Amino acid sequence: MTTGSQFRTDTVHRLTRKGHQLKVRVDDLPGGAEYGFILVAGDIADGCLVRIHSRCVYGDVLGSEDCDCAAQLDRSLDLIQAEGSGVLIYLEQEGRGAGLVAKARGKNVQEHTGVDTFSAYRALDLAPDSRDYLLAIVALLRLDLESVRLLTNNPEKIRPLQYVGIRVEVQPLLISPPNEEVRQYLEAKRLERGHRIPEELTAPAAESDRQSQSMPLVGYAFRAPRWRTPKFSSRWDPRRRAQPGPERAVAITLRETDFDTVSVWEDDDRPAASGLRGVRAWLWQELKRRWSADRAQRFGSHASPRIA
Ligand SMILES: [Zn+2]
Asked: N or C: which end of the chain has fewer CB within 10 A?
């Protein structure tokens, strides 16, 4: 069954890449172009390939070889092109959500101290990874996709999709590190963020192993807050928590997801309809309400509106 029939059709055009043409259509992400875009290639159906990619201007645009971002994007597009269909969601979440300047400051700390990128962020009092995938999820829900093959190694992209009822088959994007920088970066992703990267892919060469062991370890004194701790408000008293109704149970589950900056469940109202369909509709209504309130509040400001 072809899905995504609600997607706008006035942007359909041919894209030539690596000598082959692909029919694509694009749209801004829900909320606005400043959050990124969604590109649908070919005629998608349930189980299609999906890549959720966060912007890395160094890798994606400048050809930097210090990270695997460009290689992952390139591989994803190769696979989508080979299948003739798929979805790319490109999120404006540079520097793992902290921005380009913060990323550059992190690299500066890394070069001076030898710590990995996540520790460098902590040393700067930044969350190691403040990206969220809410808009990607809403975009996928609007395509009516019930199952996807997700091109990722990052469990934080998998769980939120599963929470909203999208069946996820994970298709790893394993990039052999072309140099020591990328090897260390992949290793940090695996050790610090639980990315599904085989250990052997990041096994250090003997020389580089000695180098990394001799590197000074600083920055660990700065521990960023645990961003994924479920935030139960006081109204969730023990008595009510002990006897959750079916809808309440759904709400609690969703509150425990990785939607760091989303507090759509703060209000005590519940989905009007029961079941997943109701939760989806409710999520979407809530988001629209929050966006319009947020926009009105920040009119004229370039500050990125927070959903929370
Ligand atoms: Zn990168």
From this structure: N
- In 3D, which of 112, 131, 129 has the Cα closest to residue 219? 112
**Structure token pair of residue 239:** 């008595």
Q: Where are the domains of the chain?
A: 13-214, 238-296
CATH architecture of 13-214: 3-Layer(aba) Sandwich (3.40)
- Residue 168 CA to ligand 1 centre (angstroms): 24
Catalytic residues: 129, 131
pLDDT tens string 133-189: 888 888 888 888 889 999 998 888 888 888 778 899 999 888 888 888 888 888 888
Nearest to 50 by CA among 189, 175, 163, 167: 167
pTM here? 0.67
State the distance from the centre of ligand 1 to the C-alpha of 123, rounded, in angstroms.
Answer: 20
CA of 62 to the centre of ligand 1 (A): 10
Taking the centre of ligand 1 as the mean of its atom positions, its distance from the CA of residue 63, in whole angstroms, is: 9
